[in-house]
């Protein structure tokens, strides 16, 4: 049974989440502040954390940092904060996804299921992504560093490949602009979002069926990008 830790100080939201999650056979624990959340996480080792950023005793970002000090448990942020800067701060601290209040229960549950799936080991070396990732239109072979589309190799530049690899290894997860820039171009980068726009456009032209309406390389405006199969 999948264990979920819900961290929110709004009783009605906690109640709605607990009812919906238990109805779907999740085991649920709840905490109303950051300190209790960190204690429960250490004691119960949840499989996924649903975390509100606006807690009474500490900022939710501090809870994320506290968890990331010892665990890679998926963290799904749930918050009324709408500015992209605050969302990016949570993602850069180690959150895996972000749902803005008010939210639809179906969307939140789908995001939660995706977070749990991504955290499951795929065999072999534990946290290694599956070596071959297939979509409806193309195949990415991470081990061979090759991409196939319509039976042919797709020629990618080293930078295009590196960007693709980071996104594919985080399939379904929102990767912030800063994280992408630092992983692909280096730690001194973080604000050159024009680089990302240029290279994402190139990847879409080479791999998407309709680059102007991408299915696989999704932009989250002001925050980052998400690779979807």
From TrEMBL:
Residue ranges of every copy of the OmpR/PhoB-type domain listed in the record: 130-229
GO CC annotation terms, alphabetical: cytosol; protein-DNA complex
Gene Ontology biological-process annotations: positive regulation of DNA-templated transcription
Alphabetized SMART domains for the sequence: REC, Trans_reg_C
Matching InterPro entries: CheY-like_superfamily (IPR011006), OmpR/PhoB-type_DNA-bd (IPR001867), Sig_transdc_resp-reg_receiver (IPR001789), WalR-like (IPR039420), WH-like_DNA-bd_sf (IPR036388)
Matching Pfam families: Response_reg (PF00072), Trans_reg_C (PF00486)
Gene3D superfamilies in the record: 3.40.50.2300, 6.10.250.690, Winged helix-like DNA-binding domain superfamily/Winged helix DNA-binding domain (1.10.10.10)
Sequence positions bearing 4-aspartylphosphate: 52
One of the record's GO molecular function terms: phosphorelay response regulator activity
Major subcellular site: cytoplasm
PROSITE patterns assigned to the protein according to its UniProt record, in alphabetical order: OMPR_PHOB, RESPONSE_REGULATORY
DNA-binding region: 130-229
Tagged with keyword Cell membrane: no
Organism of origin: Streptomyces corynorhini
UniProt-recorded name of the protein: Transcriptional regulatory protein KdpE
Localization terms from the record: Cytoplasm
């Amino acid at each position: 049974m999948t264990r979920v830790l819900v961290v929110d100080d709004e009783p009605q939201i906690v109640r709605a989440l607990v009812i919906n999650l238990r109805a779907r056979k999740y085991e649920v624990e709840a905490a109303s502040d950051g300190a209790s959340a960190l204690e429960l996480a250490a004691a119960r080792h949840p499989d996924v954390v649903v975390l509100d950023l606006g807690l009474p005793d500490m900022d939710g970002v501090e809870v994320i940092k506290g968890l990331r000090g010892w665990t890679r448990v998926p963290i799904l942020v749930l918050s009324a904060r709408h500015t992209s800067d605050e969302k990016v701060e949570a993602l850069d601290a180690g959150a895996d996804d972000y749902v803005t209040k008010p939210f639809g229960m179906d969307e939140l549950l789908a995001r939660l299921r995706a977070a749990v799936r991504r955290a499951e080991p795929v065999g072999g070396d534990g946290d290694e992504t599956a070596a071959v990732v297939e979509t409806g239109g193309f195949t990415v072979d991470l081990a061979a560093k090759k991409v196939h589309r319509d039976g042919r190799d797709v020629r990618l530049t080293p930078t295009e490949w590196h960007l693709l690899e980071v996104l594919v290894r985080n399939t379904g997860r929102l990767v912030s602009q800063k994280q992408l820039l630092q992983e692909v171009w280096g730690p001194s980068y973080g604000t050159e979002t024009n680089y990302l726009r240029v290279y994402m456009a190139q990847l879409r032209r080479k791999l998407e069926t309709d680059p102007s309406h991408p299915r696989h390389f999704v932009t989250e405006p002001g925050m980052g990008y998400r690779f979807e199969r």
